Amino acid sequence: MEPAPTLREIGCFARVAQTLSFSRAATDLGLSQPAISQAIGRAERALGVRLFERTSRDVRLSPAGTALLPYAEALLETASALRAEAARQAAPPRTLITLAYAPPAGPLVAQAARRLARRRPAVQLQLRPAGRRAAMAALAAGEASAAVVGAPFPTGYTTGARFSVAVAHLAVPAGDPLAAAPALRPAQLTSHKILMPAHRPRGGMWAQLAAALHGPHQHHIVGEEIDDFAALLDQVAAGAGLLPVPHLVASSIRRPDIGFVPLAAGRLRLTYGLAWPPDRATPELMTVVHAVQESLWTR
């Protein structure tokens, strides 16, 4: 009994069937024409049927060849999938690092994730947007490997890759007269409420702005902290108050009910940094820290 045709012979059969030319199949497969003819002959003997009807001028599939071609193609696809999966299984496993981050840091952590994906071996960064409280809870529970959080930085954690985000615009309702102003100073806001967090650490951006507004009556407290500026724009549109926003928010969000006006209130900046538990400083986590630092250098 003839042995079953090899994958190489089945591949030659499928290619000749697709091109209906021994010479073109030979060129496509990088073989000589006699090698293609011999492979087809061995496949025909193994299967016990003629796969092609040959004349001096053309090549056509035989009825048996027409019936067998779909099985040959399916077999070749399965073999290709087998090789691909074997290669995937043989490759070094990709380390998964979960990074919680404040939304204003989104572009930076996305850039770091792209850098890590290009490394060999790759480090897969799972991004998890979260406010400060949720990020710190995820760190404490081991659900996040590290977190990008705002200053003041938590005690008991290692921090690095610090950076700042400029807060230079004020979000106002589109119909408010302030929306037409070329710029706004704190003195112009005395009759307006400013959306503020309850937690305003001394020396931080929110404390600096609150001092410039001269009095608590202009403050509308919207939460313990403000992490997601984009989510608060609905309150601005509804007339609950005006919102100081980072430049990224003002330059990337377009809403017909919101205007972004330059805010001249001094050098307002939110400071962020990467924090992680010192006992979890694995080589993979340090690779993430370095990727974030590299992203800071090139942004």
TrEMBL record:
Keywords: DNA-binding, Transcription, Transcription regulation
Domain HTH lysR-type: 5-62
Top-level taxon in the UniProt lineage: Bacteria
Family: Belongs to the LysR transcriptional regulatory family.
Transcription keyword on record: yes
SUPFAM superfamilies: Periplasmic binding protein-like II, Winged helix' DNA-binding domain
A Pfam family of this chain: HTH_1
Organism: Sphaerisporangium rhizosphaerae
Protein name: LysR family transcriptional regulator
